[in-house]
Amino acid sequence: MCSVHDAVEFEKRGIPATVFLTEIFRNSAIHTFRSKGMDGHPFIALPHPISNLSPEQMREVTLRHMDEFVSHLTG
After folding, report:
1. Of residues 49, 29, 50, 48, the one with CA closest to residue 40
2. What is this structure's pTM?
3. CB neighbourhood size of 60 (10 A)
4. What pLDDT, in 10s, does the model give residues 17-69?
5. Contact, 18 vs 72, CB < 8 A?
6. N or C: which end of the chain has fewer CB within 10 A?
7. What distance separates the 2 farthest-apart alpha carbons in the chain?
8. How many other CB atoms are there within 10 angstroms of residue 48's CB atom?
């Protein structure tokens, strides 16, 4: 879970970070954040799979989570 590790490193440096991942990686993200001392760190779980989505569909999925994304970084 490279993106989770990256988020942890940013947070350690005082830079707010969050992660977009798909539902299938939810438990892995939870356990990785916990093991890094960041239990409960927020992330955004998109539906799985996304690899078959067109660019337009991916944009729609992502935009549905934009408010959540901003709140993770500013809240």
Report:
1. 29
2. 0.87
3. 11
4. 999 999 999 999 999 999 999 999 999 999 999 999 999 999 999 999 999 99
5. yes
6. C
7. 37
8. 12
